[in-house]
Specification:
The chain has about 425 residues and is α/β, with parallel strands linked by helices. The chain has two domains: about 170 residues, Aspartate Aminotransferase, domain 1 (Alpha-Beta Complex), CATH 3.90.1150; about 240 residues, Type I PLP-dependent aspartate aminotransferase-like (Major domain) (Aspartate Aminotransferase, domain 2, 3-Layer(aba) Sandwich). Helix content is about 40%, strand content about 15%. The protein is built from 13 helices and 17 strands. A seven-stranded mixed β-sheet has the order 4-12-11-10-7-5-6, with helices on both faces. Strands 1-2-3-15 form a four-stranded mixed β-sheet. A four-stranded antiparallel β-sheet has the order 13-14-17-16, covered by helices on one side. Helix 4 runs parallel beside helix 10, helix 11 runs parallel beside helix 13 and helix 12 crosses helix 13. It starts with 8 loop residues before the first helix and ends with a helix. The chain binds pyridoxal-5'-phosphate. The site of pyridoxal-5'-phosphate has 15 residues, from helix 5.
Length: about 425
């Protein structure tokens, strides 16, 4: 088999099975083109994209500003390695991140990286040098990435941790609120306090890392009082608060950062996904005193803040602060909220719809009373929807949550059509399984 012979989707998928490692799971679709909130496969089939490369396309596939910036940069230079020679787009992205930072402190600095996992690990490195402490506290249902420390910080065994131990030391886990399943802010905050009595001395904790809306964990917004309690508990023990906004940032919930919804200032913020407009770029931002606690050359990497990723981010950062973008994000959020509430009223398998802004999801259950998770129904819904031209993805520890990360440029009638397909697909999946 040669790839040249593999023009059709079936042939390409066969080649994918032959040559690509099995450990990377892909849906049976091979994309040829993408624009806005739509993608087309190599056989010419059109799909509405409610996934956006897992939240990387808030400004839309091939956003004109991003594409234009990339074309201009391609003719100048592609790679320098910022460690060897600096370049303006890297510095400018750090300047914009400083201006937009929700973190404590007047003077903000950043480091740019390639992946979210790498950014989370760098945030921990910075927190450790700034505090001189080793331990890290994370939460139930957290997702922070797939590298050793980030994987340890992540909470779902299969597929993220199964067979991959031993894990990194000095990572401790506390409960997080999940109102639908009876875990309140009070219970979770008490759990964090208990962790400091039973498992780890808070004086050895460098940082607490928390997603303001748990993403992979099931699109669970952390209630504002919980974020306030976490901030207060961190302050009581001189622990740094790291806000992981890799999935929630860049306007996904309306404002640039989800933490902007509440009156809480973290110490460090981690960004990624949509920051690069489809190119790999992530960030760690915080006050200069923390960021500069690391010795010279202690942070770095060959491809960190690649020039192409940085010019794409300049275009993204220029767009997500505009009133027009915000109005669009809020419009998508309210259309989704209304449509999901209507869907939940009609479809018995929907246990809860929830989210923040345009980061929304439905949790599917076998029974509304027992709330037994329905992962098989969720998987079947995703498959059926793909056949009807809608791309969806699950999340949650039980993989029974269907998450929506539609590019925020989606047209209102496309969004409405996508919601119809979603409902039809759940009903069909439920009928097949009955
Ligand atoms: C909250 C959060 N943190 C970290 C990561 C890891 O990012 P990456 O896959 O770019 O390593 C993700 C990815 O989904 C995420 O959602």
């Amino acid at each position: 088999m040669t790839i040249q012979e593999s023009a059709t989707m079936d042939a390409l998928l066969a080649a994918r099975d032959r040559y690509v490692a099995r450990g990377i799971a892909t849906a049976p679709i091979v994309v040829a083109r993408a624009e806005g909130a739509k993608v087309w496969d190599v056989d010419g089939q059109e799909y509405l994209d409610f996934v956006g490369g897992i939240g990387c396309q808030n400004v839309g596939h091939n956003a004109p500003g991003v594409v234009e910036a990339l074309h201009a940069q391609v003719d100048d230079y592609l790679h320098q390695c910022f460690v060897i020679s600096a370049y303006e787009p890297f510095i400018d992205v750090c300047r914009r991140l400083a201006e937009l930072s929700p973190c404590r402190g007047a003077e903000q600095k950043s480091i740019l990286l390639n992946s979210g996992a790498e950014a989370v690990e760098n945030a921990v490195k910075i927190a450790r040098t700034a505090t001189g402490r080793p331990a890290v506290v994370v939460f139930d249902r957290a997702f922070h990435g797939r590298t050793l420390l980030a994987m340890t910080m992540t909470s779902k065994v299969n597929p993220y941790k199964k067979g991959f131990g031993p894990f990194a030391p000095e990572v401790y886990r506390a409960p997080a609120p999940y109102p639908y399943r009876g875990i309140s802010t009070e219970t979770a905050a008490a759990g964090l306090e208990y962790l400091f009595k039973a498992e780890v001395d808070p004086e050895t904790v460098a940082c607490v890392v928390l997603e303001p809306v748990q993403g992979e964990g099931g699109f669970i917004p952390m209630p504002a009082p919980f974020l306030e309690r976490v901030r207060a508990i961190c302050d009581a023990h001189s622990i740094l608060y790291v806000d992981d906004e890799i999935q929630t940032g860049m306007g996904r919930t309306g404002p640039v950062w989800a933490i902007n919804h509440v009156d809480v200032e973290p110490d460090l913020i981690v960004g990624g996904k949509s920051l690069g407009g489809g190119l790999p770029l992530t960030s760690v931002t915080g006050r200069a005193e923390l960021m500069d606690s690391v010795h010279s050359s202690g942070l770095g990497g060959t491809f960190i803040g690649n020039p192409l990723s940085c010019v794409a981010a300049q275009a993204v950062l220029a767009e997500v602060v505009t009133d027009e973008f915000r109005a669009r994000a809020d419009g998508v959020a309210s259309q989704l909220e209304t449509a999901l509430a209507a869907l939940a009223a009609r479809v018995d398998a929907v246990g809860e719809t929830r989210g923040l802004g345009a980061m929304r999801a439905i949790e599917l259950v076998l029974d509304r009373e027992t709330k037994t998770p329905a992962p098989g129904l969720a998987a079947a819904t995703v498959d059926i929807a793909r056949g009807k031209g809608l791309l969806l993805m699950t999340s949650g520890v039980h993989s029974n949550v269907i998450r929506i990360l539609v590019p925020l440029v989606v047209a209102a009638d496309d969004l409405a059509r996508g919601m119809e397909i979603l409902e039809e697909s759940i009903e069909q999946a439920a009928a097949q399984r009955a």
